[in-house]
Amino acid sequence: GIQVEQSPPDLILQEGANSTLRCNFSDSVNNLQWFHQNPWGQLINLFYIPSGTKQNGRLSATTVATERYSLLYISSSQTTDSGVYFCAVGLYNTDKLIFGTGTRLQVFP
Amino acid sequence: NAGVTQTPKFRVLKTGQSMTLLCAQDMNHEYMYWYRQDPGMGLRLIHYSVGEGTTAKGEVPDGYNVSRLKKQNFLLGLESAAPSQTSVYFCASSYLGDPNEQFFGPGTRLTVL
User: Fold this and answer.
1) I need a surface site. Which of B42, B82, B92, B100 has the fewest CB within 10 A?
2) Quick check: A43 contacting B, CB < 8 Å?
3) DSSP string of A41-64?
């Protein structure tokens, strides 16, 4: 089956720093989502981005489907950005998402 | 508009007991899903439903059953709980036009002793 790998597995930042999270996938995908799981366990949709670039405030994401990767950029990080970031891919002709193992981000003041 | 809600939020069971987790959504979504999340891991699909009265197996279906009697509700049952089913369970839903854009509930933390 398809492999979805995220890097780095852990990231520690000081408030105000920028970061880039990466999601690699081993096969063609129909779409891709980025989620933030906050310290209380809630999963929050960040981006639905099968290709191209999207921005939402301090966050932006780029997916290059032909090269099988997606990047999530966090600028001017805040302590509230802490948590685990997951990418999940949807395959053609299926109704299911395959999740990566996540990147754990800790932002300190 | 509550989105996706899950009941209960926490539960502790003894080995061999049974229970049902309830997921409800008010977005009129056709698709609903149950996932489990184990420590340090991503989510794995247990069962899903593409419409009222339908269910299908996901990646890790053993030990679980599901029912979708109403479009807005998706039930996950554990007939005889085992310690290996200790996990956080998430429900999600999506609409027919784009089933892969899924929206998640807050999760249920289940401990089986």
Assistant:
1) B82
2) yes
3) --EEEEEE-SSEEEEETTEEEEEE
